[in-house]
Amino acid sequence: MKTFKGRVITPGTVTATALVSHGGLNTLASFQKALQFGDKMATCGDQNNPDLYGKQMCGKALCLPQTIGSTTGGLVLYCACAMKRQPACLLFSNPIDSLALAGAVLADVWLDDVSMPVVDSLGEEFLNYVQDGMQITIKEDGEVIVE
Amino acid sequence: MRLNEQQQAILNGAQGETLAKVMLTLVKYGEAFNADKMVAVTSEYNHLVTSFGLKALTPVYELMDKILEAGACSSQKFSADPRPVDKNVPANFLEKFIFNKFMYSKQDFYEGQLEKLGLLNKDAFTCTCYMNEVGNKPKQGDILSWSESSAVVYANSVLGARCNRNSGIMDLMGSIVGYVPHFGLLTDEGRKATWVIKIETTKKPEAQLLGSAIGMKVMEDVPYVVGLDKWLGTELDDAACTYLKDFGAATASNGAVGLYHIANLTPEAKQLGEALIAEGAKEYVIDDAELQRVYDSYPVIWKNADATPKLCFMGCPHMSLEQLKSWTDKVESALKEYGNSKVVIPTVFTAAPAVLAEFEKTDYAKRLKATGVITSYICPLMYMNNPLCGKKPVITSSNKLRTYTTARYYTDDEILVQITKGGKA
Fold it and tell me: Are residues B154 and B185 in contact, defined by beta-carbon separation less than 8 angstroms?
């Protein structure tokens, strides 16, 4: 077990199974098929992301450095939240990027019944340590327990 | 973040609950980036990334409705990304059914929303709104609330405007209140390069390949590119701007670049030179071997990697007038060389409606039509979002299209051979 401390972007507590992307998450490429064609488990469609391609993202503790790609990224994440196909939480090793932040803030301000805690700046060591299938617990103060 | 009296009043609800939530969204967005204040949007027009009435984005349209119901429209008119459907583009019966009845069934509804929100005109749909023919071209130093990764990186880098990589919806919200948070690429510090890219190729590097290599390496950082002026010159003429359009789109889609500087060419690099390079900047050398390595790294996800291409898309981002003309010459010449009269793969060149209108006024339009190439205002990316495209071997020289879809990337020269001769390049 190891504990990491990050910055809280969207508060909340949750325990979920880790899904790890060592490269940037291309939000549009990852979510577009799932949102369009009724895949409630949000299977990742990004062919360029070998860590995530073909894996289910909904309900997972998604661990990543940052998001990349199209500036539809924020609204795609917002839609994933509105359609209840979002990850259980987003855990960034880097400071959050503008597109992921937009999605997190839009969901936080405009959706009443959605929870997707977001913590950033967890550091490179976090992403080196965490692996698919590990249990992750987030606390209100940005503490992330990986076991 | 410090808010002025007017901004604070909006946040406090003086102009209604919806506008207060719009301001709250922008404040939260800025605070996460340690923005010190909100600054006024100064560009004449805005640009939105969301142009498609995709059923899956229903939550976005519901949010738009809330904004419209509250009368919270922008005083700033805007262009938007390309339309997703065009009857001129080849599609079989099933594809047409899926486009019109399933995927983009909300297109008319959404375009109605855009008109109410301040769409510039009925044809203001393109990802290259900054083309002279379109007219949404910011001045150096303008503050923007734009989205569309390829347009943002072009506006920042080639035009010297200031814009963060805003997401869809955030683009509209900044324009509605007339302010955006002051951070990142809006600041002098945020525009400094943390990477120096040295170009050491033996020939002019393919724009889309070079952009891809840099994007994947620097991700969201700002690169300062040295040695590209050897190939592009030191003036931002049509050819250089076209190259940088495609280069930038690849940096933004294969990575998350929002601004690049090209030594001796782009405006800030010309004015400030190496003073733009931050202390401790990292270095990345790109030679022929490195470009080949990047090219070879692209996965081919066609079901049959040896399949004969069924469609070719050029123009993601939309082609410039200069590109349409030069490609007309190239296609004509190659067809002659290979003894064909028309392209052997259905080929679509995409460009802004206003650029296509100008192109139609030239002799080139008739010549291109005679080669069998189709012109369209469509967004190739949105076309390829249909599930049937997964089985359709589509080729492109767009690294953006390759990244988001199953389209297979080839260099411009390889594409030319494929569409005029056929077979492998």
Answer: no
With tokens 């992750």, the residue in question is: A136
Rounded to 5 degrees, what are φ and ψ at A80? -60, -40
- Domain B311-420, architecture per CATH: 2-Layer Sandwich (3.30)
* Residues forming beta bridges with residue A138, ordered by sequence position: A14, A144
What are the backbone dihedrals phi and psi of residue B350, each rounded to the nearest 5 degrees, phi first? -110, 140
Amino acid at B87: K
User: Is B59 in the A-facing interface, judged by CB distances under 8 Å?
Assistant: yes
Domain B5-186: which CATH class?
A: alpha beta
Instruction: Flag whether the pTM goes above 0.80.
Output: yes
pLDDT for A69 equals 78
- Eight-class DSSP state of B291: H
């749909």: which residue's tokens?
A: B125
* CB nearest A47 (choices: B58, B60, B299): B299
**Given this chain, do its domains B5-186 and B311-420 carry the same CATH topology?**
yes
Cβ atoms of residues B380 and B406 within 8 Å: no
Distance between CA atoms of residues B331 and B309, nearest Å: 17
> B417 vs chain A: nearest CA distance in angstroms?
26
Residue A122: CATH number of its domain: 3.50.30.10
Do the Cβ atoms of A69 and B149 come within 8 Å? yes
Q: Phi, psi at residue B394, to the nearest 5°?
A: -110, 135
Going by C-alpha positions, the residue among A63, A42, A45 that lies closest to residue A54 is A45
pLDDT in tens, B57-93: 889 999 999 999 999 888 899 999 999 999 999 888 8
Tokens 């998350």 belong to residue: B256
Show the domain range for A46: 2-146
